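=== RUN LOG ===
request id: a7f3
mode: sequence -> structure
chains: 1
length: 548
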Amino acid sequence: MKKIFFVFAAVLSISLSAQKNSAPAKAPENWFNLSNANEHVHGVGTERTYSELTKGMKMDTVIVCVLDGGVDYNHEDLKDVMWHNPREIPGNGIDDDKNGYVDDVYGWNFIGGKNGENVEFDNLELVRLLRPLDKRFKGKDANAITPSEKADFDQYLKLKAAYDVKYGEAKQGLGGLMGFKQALGMVKDAIKKQRSIDTVMYADFAAYVVPETATKQYKHLVSQLKKFIVSEESWKDIHAEIADGLKQLSGMLDYNLNLEYDSRSIVGDHYEDATEKYYGNNDVKGPDASHGTHVAGIIAANRFNNIGILGVAAPVKIMAVRAVPNGDERDKDIANGIRYAVDNGAKIINMSFGKSYAFNKGAVDEAVKYAESKGVLLVHAAGNDNANNDLITDYPNDHYLSGGIATNWIEVGALSWQTGAKIVAPFSNFGKTEVDVFSPGVDINSCKVDGGYIAESGTSMASPVCAGCCALLKVYFPELTAAQLKSIIEQSSDKSMANTKINCPGGKKKMIGKGMKANKVKFGTLSKTGGMVDVYAAFQLAQSMQKK
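=== RESULT ===
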């Protein structure tokens, strides 16, 4: 799924982005492009690379595909870096380039219908796999199962158990968040009464004095709130977090986990036919392009317009391929999205999505092999479950069902701008064999739909930082193959923290005296390289390879 869901298990359990506002320190501006050598922050060194290494060098324009939930191609920082299909005449309703896609000016939308309607929400893959089995076996006595049905029935029980856990977590999370909203509302009502005001601002909250007659529980509630809400910014943020959390968790129950909901009729394809390619529409923005727009900005926001942010790579053109809804992506759409990008000139594809189950991994594998054969690099987010990817299966991945591993695939974990033990994002997945490298992914400021900018966190942000670095290399060294790009990124990664003990994402807590301390692990054990993306070193390595 392209969005992260946080479970509000207790009244004061709030999401990571709200919690970070209680800290006095903030991420340095443009930190993901900065360097440890110059600014003492573990960005990828983009600015240093441009200022010291690229002057006077010839550049090629590189097309990077953002395979995601849509891109706002009119954003002030993206409109001039969008890919335009040179063989297509916009808006004439004709497939001018005869590629099977009518008016694909900026890319293509594989989760839309010919009538212009678009899929916004979809199920989890778990639900799509469970649905037909639930219709067959719901309420059926296990003793009535025939030998020919046993395998399917066992799969049904396994999927149903996983579904029940997820549904229970979502219900609990929604209930907890609603309880938190109610508790905050109770405090605001008390402030209004005490101060004779209609609207409560942060200053009113900060000045609020709890009456001596209040219950012990109420006093504790206000005390805890004041630990988290420490500024006007965090006062606004916590209200935004509540609204966003309610929206996400309600969507989880109404769409993602709803066995009765199926959006595929909107697309109108023959879903079981994985070979079908020509469906969808040309609306690459779609109903919710927030995620893909943020990703696109990280990669290539205009570096020369003196507004907004600085993308990692230039000159780069962003090709938008919409295939990821609010829910789990479908394998057929991802496979077709990869093939479309390859056939239309993309050299790098960013994939900031993932799921726990697959419907047709073989179709995706064939598309990855196709990209591999054409020298196209795939950069994929490792996931936001603070899980060890060596111990779980996350889709899509670089392991072919037929055997072998893709040579054109980079799996990326997320770094924080903080140093020392907190350098790895607490939500990031990791894995000594399944994650290749880490890249900045916390408090990354990038483009917002319909204009403006917003800071977001996730391996969804770490992946495009890495993809942008690969694009930067490809701009100056166009002869590099996908396998060589991957090798250069890995070899040149900054391993200075490899032996440093850091907080392991999701590490079990151990009681130490009256406090809690996260398990510590060496940073180098969390990925194959034990390193962090360093485009400055990567550029130098590419130069030395070119000389040889």
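=== NOTES ===
Residues 150-195 form the longest helix (46 residues).
The chain is about 35% helix and 10% strand.
=== END ===
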